[in-house]
Amino acid sequence: MAKILRIYPENPQENLINEVIKCLNNGGLIIYPSDTIYALGCNIFDIKAMEKLAQIKKMKLEKAQFSIICNDLSHLSDFTRPIDTSVFRFLKSHLPGPFTFILDANKSVPLAYKGHKTIGIRVPDHPIPQLIVEKLGHPIASTSIKDDDEIIEYSTDPELIAEKYDHLVDIVIDSGYGDNVASTIVDLTSGEPEMIRQGKGII
């Protein structure tokens, strides 16, 4: 059964964040809030956790396009090829924020991303995922939580999310109601911004 931790952005308790870090380091899966929607996350370097994440999404890991959640742009060089100054300035002007930016992947990406030519980078404007990544010491892999409802695309109620994913994840962070608009996806691989999906972020 998933453990529900009530952590609020105004005052995230360090002991609860540490519990989340311990869970991730032990291969656990978490559900966490962001500046857009609630999302599923795990340790990007734990291949078994990544496989569990793919299973929940009913896809093979090699086909999965899980975003990488960072707390700033300092991790870019760990996952992406060198980027132009103009692209970096563009990223810096929009992050943190409700965007997923597609960039060229480098050859030193984690095992679960091997063979991927591109990679999606997110820096949410939300203290909880930022704190998690900061304390963990590296980014986490992430994927959005879809709703079964035909009208509401994304689940917003953490209690209902916890019920649905009770036996699939280890921790659900309840941070109050989430948004139901996903991030805006922008492809930067050509050096010029190309809109892939209009979401919460405005370019």
UniProtKB/TrEMBL annotation:
Pfam families: Sua5_yciO_yrdC (PF01300). Gene3D superfamilies: DHBP synthase. GO terms for molecular function: double-stranded RNA binding. InterPro entries: DHBP_synth_RibB-like_a/b_dom, Sua5-like_dom, SUA5_domain. Residues 14-201 form the YrdC-like domain. It comes from the Bacteria. NCBIfam families: L-threonylcarbamoyladenylate synthase (TIGR00057). This is tRNA threonylcarbamoyl adenosine modification protein, Sua5/YciO/YrdC/YwlC family. It comes from Chryseobacterium limigenitum.
